[in-house]
Design brief:
Rossmann fold, alpha/beta, 11 helices, SAM-dependent methyltransferase, seven-stranded mixed β-sheet, methyltransferase activity, SAM-dependent_MTases_sf, about 270 residues, transferase
Length: about 270
């Protein structure tokens, strides 16, 4: 489903939204009482959750920097969420002025806020779509008009794959995106990890299952398959905090360090 340019989708403030809860954890302002209540319940089960999400957000920034420094100036942000400080366009354009960014999300909340931020900004577009409908996304006007798929593109699938329970459907979609982009493109992925089955995991999953975005954990081998045969950039598949850390990154606690696994691959 794509969102016409002049349409504002209906938003239910009574049902917690995964995008708004995420925004709340990051210190944003785009959330309602229902979102804050759901966040409080999740925090009671997992107090380190905001630290985990900040760690994942720092990884996104570093991955965008790595892609831009590799010469990539086009970004397809699949599951972009609500804009936050150090957004993909902001980080990319700091290194590649004029970088082009298309943001895709299934959550109307995220699309509305992204559209407001991107309004009038050249080289930016946002669309309401299911990222697993890869054919529709790739045929959509924002992608065709803003991105040149004959040149390298950075595909971003960060903090969203664990909200897509159909592994086969997600895998097929990612395969289509990988096939559509040029050699030299990057695929950036992160995922909540099931390794070790932390004791609070099932309780947090139950909380998210009452939101607009039910959540699933996957094992490391399942996660690796999403990259297909693309070689991983060093340091490979690692916890988010360990992917090319910099001095200014948030320091996660020991228990938070293993919650999110990440990787970046380049198309040969």
């Amino acid at each position: 489903m794509r969102l016409p340019a002049d349409t504002v989708p209906e938003i239910d403030p009574q049902r917690p939204s995964g995008a708004r809860v995420y925004d709340y954890y990051l210190g944003g302002t785009h959330h309602f009482a229902a979102d804050r209540q759901a966040a409080a319940v999740a925090l009671a089960a997992m107090p380190e959750l905001p630290a985990v999400l900040r760690m994942g957000r720092a990884f996104l920034r570093r991955a965008v920097v790595a892609a831009a420094e590799a010469g990539i100036d086009q970004f397809l942000d699949l599951g972009a969420g609500i804009p936050a400080p150090e957004s993909v366009p902001e980080v990319a354009r700091r290194i590649r002025p004029g970088a082009r960014v298309v943001s895709v999300d299934l959550d109307p909340v995220a699309v509305v806020h992204t559209r407001r931020v991107a309004a009038g900004e050249p080289g930016s577009a946002v669309m309401l779509a299911d990222l697993t409908d890869a054919d529709e996304v790739l045929r959509a006007a924002p992608v065709r008009e803003i991105l040149d798929l004959d040149r390298p593109v950075c595909l971003l699938v960060v903090a969203v794959a664990h909200f897509i329970p159909d592994t086969e459907r997600l895998g097929r979609a990612l395969e289509k995106y990988r096939e559509a982009v040029a050699p030299g493109s990057h695929l950036v992925l992160s995922h909540a990890c099931a390794q070790g089955n932390p004791p609070h995991a099932q309780q947090v999953l139950r909380i998210y299952n009452h939101m607009t975005s039910p959540m699933i954990l996957r094992e490391k081998d399942e996660f690796r398959a999403f990259f297909g045969d693309w070689p991983l950039l060093p340091p490979g598949l690692v916890p988010a905090a360990d992917w090319r850390p910099t001095g200014g990154d948030p320091e996660p606690g020991r228990s938070a360090r293993r919650e999110i696994i990440v990787g970046v691959a380049a198309k040969p």
